[in-house]
Amino acid sequence: MPSLADLQDEYEFLDADDRYRLLIDLGRSLEPMPEPLKTDATLVRGCSAAVWVYPTSRDDGTLHFLADSNAAITKGIIALVLLAVQDRSPAEILATDVEAALAPFDLRNQLSSNRTQGIPNMIALIRETAGRYAT
């Protein structure tokens, strides 16, 4: 996966259709989430598409998230969010301003409100998870 900064540089020069394609490709690059992990307990509430997020803790104390969606564009948005927090310590995740990291992508103006309405819920779930692991 590219860094958010590298992705932003590419994203800025694309037209709307190519931005959609970039998000879809980014979503395809997500690590596969095993079907048994896609349960009601891992479902992110408030998303127009089904979104599942499953945290794992690594031996070095970092958090690694598995995530998936049944919608291609939504998977790309998930991948963007994960680029900001993946494989970081709970303290780093809590200190990360994910909304600011995603701001250059201007998702609210690039995508329909249905596509972006679940982003705050996903970010909140990731922060809540980091908070549980930080204590």
Describe the structure in your own words.
- The longest helix has 16 residues, at 119-134.
- By secondary structure, the chain is mainly alpha-helical.
- The protein has helices at residues 4-12, 16-28, 72-85, 90-95, 98-102, 107-110, 113-116, 119-134, and strands at 51-57, 63-69.
- Strand 1 and strand 2 form a beta hairpin.
- It has a two-stranded antiparallel sheet with strand order 1-2.
- The mean pLDDT is 91.
- It has one domain (4-134): Sufe protein. Chain: A (Alpha-Beta Complex), CATH 3.90.1010.
- The protein contains 8 helices and 2 strands.
- Residues 14-128 form the Fe-S metabolism associated domain.
Corresponding CATH architecture: Alpha-Beta Complex
> Which segments are poorly predicted (pLDDT under 50) over 5 or more consecutive residues?
none
Outline: globular
Average pLDDT: 91
CATH topology: Sufe protein. Chain: A
Major pleated sheet: 2 strands, antiparallel
Quickly count the domains: 1
The helix-strand sequence is HHEEHHHHHH
Helix content: 40-55%
Strand order of the largest sheet: 1-2
Secondary structure class reads mainly alpha
Q: Quote the beta fraction.
A: 5-15%
State the total count of DSSP E strands.
2
**Helix count from the secondary structure assignment:** 8
Distance between the termini: 29 Å
Family: Belongs to the SufE family.
InterPro entries: Fe-S_metab-assoc_dom
Protein name: Fe-S metabolism protein SufE
Organism: Sphingomonas psychrotolerans
